[in-house]
Design brief:
This protein is mostly helical. It is 71% helix and 1% strand. The protein has 18 helices and 2 strands. The longest helix has 40 residues. The radius of gyration is 22 Å and the shape is globular.
């Protein structure tokens, strides 16, 4: 899966379509699996912030009663993601460019672009929380201090992790991100799912009645904020949908499809690479759903009965109780290694994707020429150097990883509705009827859009204090 070439001075530009770069799509399941990747990068990013931190915290606070929301959150958004990626592969355009095509425009870009800019400032808090969570896990596992200068271990690890992110990603290679994502997702998914399935054999076991009680479509008092945040963070969020289009382009799906020359050969290639993308999305969805349910069940079964809710810099210590209370003290090391892997992969995913998104935004605003490969790569490298330290400073100032991640989730949840609007506009204006989703997939997209609309309106009303009572 890591065989693809990322953008580099000697490689083809993944954001430009040329007849010279076309490639026939695989026709067998095995061949399609060999070309997966963008979805696994997405899974690594989602599992770190949403599942490990917010979903487990929600289970710890609410018990099994919000299990229904976990399932819906993981299921409804994937259809919007698939439709946006379909448009990208057929047109070769990035999501942010597509958002700019949805009027009205404010200056050089559309209103959705400005909404994205606003959302991304809230997501900076989330990314700081991810770096802080990784640093906290490292600090517990390998406590180091600069005693002579009075530096605490958490500060030292925050600096080291931030520097590591910058050094690892300054080259801007997609393949580095993909390999890291695949390894971390496999390791931590296996460990977490195994623990969730094994809980009934421990003192923290759960019964079918507990799972049934979680399907009652209730939101208990005191859990609205974290529930709304979880909907924005778990499964595929608005920012992940946006980022997914860039990974599809850098993987090569659009470039291998080639420009639309109106020929039947190009149409067949498009159908082939769209089939690969759908499989990629399906695998990502399965991974995210399984991890989400596992983390929630573990939080509800292990932490909730003990009244333990992860918060502040004690988040990692509290989350480690998931393992130590079930398997014994030795399991803390197992959890910490896993937490570092999954949070670290999320930090890598964010540090790789956000500079690309902001570079594209600067191009849309006319600050740089996005189509100038050297200017684009230079800007991506610069922002890769600047963003992780900024996020780290935000964490060191707030030192509330759970709250920081939740704030980012609420911003993502609100932005999700704008993405739905963009997807329907782009689908109707730039996707040929031949390539539009079939009857059942379209029905799923309609239901997904309706669910997102209802929950996003609910989010806005709750955030601005216009509740529904109870």
């Amino acid at each position: 899966m890591a065989e693809q070439t990322a953008a580099s001075p000697a490689a083809a530009d993944p954001y430009a379509l040329s007849p010279d770069d076309v490639r026939e799509a695989p026709t067998t399941f095995r061949g399609r699996v060999r070309h997966l990747g963008p979805g696994l990068v997405l899974s690594a990013a989602v599992v770190g912030s949403g599942e490990l931190i917010v979903t487990t915290s929600l289970g710890a606070r609410a018990g099994f009663v919000l299990l229904w929301l976990v399932i819906i959150s993981a299921a409804v958004k994937v259809w919007v993601q698939m439709e946006l990626a379909r448009w990208t592969i057929l047109t070769g355009k990035t999501a942010l460019r597509g958002y700019g095509q949805v009027g009205p425009k404010i200056g050089r870009v559309g209103w959705i672009n400005w909404l994205w800019i606003g959302m991304d400032f809230t997501k900076m808090l989330q990314r700081g929380g991810i770096i802080g969570g990784t640093a906290a896990a490292c600090s517990i596992l390998w406590p180091i201090t600069g005693e002579a200068l009075g530096f605490p271990s958490l500060l030292v690890w925050t600096v080291l992790i931030t520097a590591g992110l910058v050094l690892l990603l300054r080259g801007g290679r997609y393949s580095v991100v993909e390999r890291t994502a695949v390894a971390s997702v496999v390791v931590f998914t296996v460990a977490t799912v195994s623990l969730a399935l094994g809980l009934p054999l421990t003192p923290f076991g759960y019964a079918p009645a507990d799972l049934g009680a979680g399907l009652g479509f209730l939101i208990p008092a005191g859990t609205v904020g974290i529930a709304v945040s979880m909907f924005g963070l778990t499964g595929v969020g608005a920012d992940e949908m946006t980022t997914y289009t860039y990974w599809c382009l850098e993987k090569g799906y659009a470039r291998w499809t080639g420009p639309d020359d109106g020929t039947e050969q190009r149409a067949r290639r498009a159908e082939g690479w769209l089939a690969v993308m759908r499989l990629d999305v399906l695998v990502s969805w399965v991974v995210c759903t399984v991890c989400t349910l596992s983390f929630y069940v573990i939080g509800a079964a292990v932490l909730h009965p003990q009244g333990l809710v992860p918060s502040g810099n004690d988040m990692i210590t509290t989350l480690s109780r998931i393992y130590t209370d079930v398997l014994g003290p030795w399991a803390e090391y197992l959890f910490l290694f896993g937490a570092i892997a999954v949070l670290g992969s999320t930090a890598i995913g964010s540090s790789a994707s956000v500079p690309r998104l902001w570079t594209n935004t600067l191009g849309l605003l006319g600050v740089i020429d996005w189509h100038d490969v050297r200017a684009r790569q230079r800007t991506v490298r610069l922002l890769t150097t600047l963003f992780p330290p900024l996020w780290a400073v935000l964490f060191l100032f707030a030192q509330e990883p759970v709250l920081m991640v939740q704030i980012g989730g609420i911003g993502s949840g609100i932005f999700l509705l704008a993405v739905v609007v963009a997807v329907w506009h782009l689908r109707s204006t730039e996707v040929d009827r031949r390539f539009r989703a079939g009857r059942w997939t379209t029905a799923a997209l309609v239901l997904s859009s309706a669910a997102i609309t209802v929950l996003c309106v609910y989010t806005v009303l709750e955030v601005f204090g216009i509740g529904f009572g109870g």
